[in-house]
Specification:
about 325 residues; alpha/beta; Rossmann fold; five-stranded parallel beta sheet; two-stranded antiparallel sheet; 12 helices; about 45% helix; about 10% strand; globular; binds thiamine diphosphate; binds magnesium ion
Length: about 325
């Protein structure tokens, strides 16, 4: 399907924002000012953005422990996110979630999740709510190759089929589950066939190509939204940084990341495709890169200057009230 010029520019802005955010966090994390674990998403931007560009604010997503890219792709505020990662009072979750539990219900971002495979069952819950309320929303879960082997994910896939709910399972194979290669850890010869074995139609995409992911996600989302039950997207794209910040990455081949960055980068692929196809101009993409770098710069400055939560706030929001 043809994507409008305005939508292409927004998609590039989101991919560029994720890249700038992640590259900067890689640097900031070394200052010691950020508490807790950070898992960077750079390299996989086309998947988060390709999928989320087919969704609206009414739709739900649930992320993984690698949640910054999914949050930005769903439209979360970058400064509020940065404040949150710095543990500040005015962060997106009042400084309580940090990187790994970041959430924004107003944007339909149900949260990052430290439990590998914890997201799909929650998203099935959101999809059940959508079906009961008949509000036309879909619920999307992102899961890595490692998570795709978890029992929770298998149960969620089966339940989504049985209850025929509007749920999209997105599987992101980034080559590794922590330090274990996907080619070893995923037992199925063909992960796509394994998903299909649950009775879920799968749209396969090139995870380094925004347009490929967008088209697959568009069809998968439409399938789920139209009352046909769950669907899935399967895409491969390697991460550029370690499993977590501080990972010495001894399990990776020398030069592996450099080759990915120069040979198959999703932002460069987007540029090539849109400029060579005379869809967009290099200057306007350069301008977006400049603006996103500035946004991230301002977000870091705001986060550094912001106050932490007051100690007495630790007792707030402990119990939900109905
Ligand atoms: C239930 C559970 N088991 C193990 C872990 C430890 N752990 C954290 S991330 C991770 C790897 C996940 O790999 P994958 O799903 O491929 O996501 P990626 O890190 O590649 O984005 C593991 C095993 C965990 N957090 N939760
Ligand atoms: Mg993985």
């Amino acid at each position: 399907m043809q994507i409008s010029r305005q939508d292409m520019l927004r998609a590039y802005r989101r991919m560029s924002t994720i890249r700038a955010f992640e590259e900067r966090l890689h640097v900031e994390n070394r200052t010691g000012e950020i508490a807790g674990f950070i898992h960077l998403y750079a390299g996989q931007e086309a998947i988060a953005v390709g999928v989320c560009e087919t969704l609206t604010d009414r739709d739900y997503i649930i992320s993984t422990h690698r949640g910054h890219g999914h949050s930005i792709a769903k439209g979360c505020d970058v400064t509020a996110m940065m404040l949150e990662i710095y543990g500040r009072r005015d962060g997106m979750c009042k400084g309580r979630s940090g990187s790994m539990h970041i959430a924004d219900l107003e944007k339909g971002m149900l949260g990052a999740n430290a439990i590998v495979g914890g997201g799909p069952p929650i998203a099935v819950g959101a999809a059940i709510a959508s079906k009961v309320k008949k509000d036309g929303s879909v619920a999307v879960s992102f899961s890595g190759d490692g998570a795709s082997n978890q029992g929770t994910v298998f149960e969620a896939m089966n339940m989504a089929v049985v209850l025929k709910v509007p749920k999209v399972f997105v599987f992101e194979n980034n080559g590794y589950s922590e330090h274990t290669g996907a080619s070893y850890g995923v037992g199925a010869d063909d992960p796509v066939k394994r998903i299909a074995g649950f009775g879920i139609p799968v749209w396969q995409a090139d995870g380094t190509d925004f347009f490929s992911v967008h088209e697959a996600a568009r069809q998968a989302t439409e399938h789920a939204r139209s009352g046909n039950g769950p669907s899935a997207v399967y895409a491969e794209a390697m991460r550029y940084f370690g499993h977590f910040e501080g990972d010495p990455q001894l399990y990776r081949a020398k030069g592996e990341v450099e080759a990915l960055r120069s040979g198959n980068d999703c932002l460069l692929n987007f540029r090539r495709r849109t400029i060579e196809g005379a869809l967009l101009e290099a200057a306007e993409l350069d301008e977006i890169d400049r603006e996103t770098a500035e946004t991230v710069e301002e977000a870091v400055a705001a986060a550094r200057a912001a106050p932490p939560p007051p100690p007495e706030a630790v007792l707030e929001d402990v119990y939900a009230t109905y």
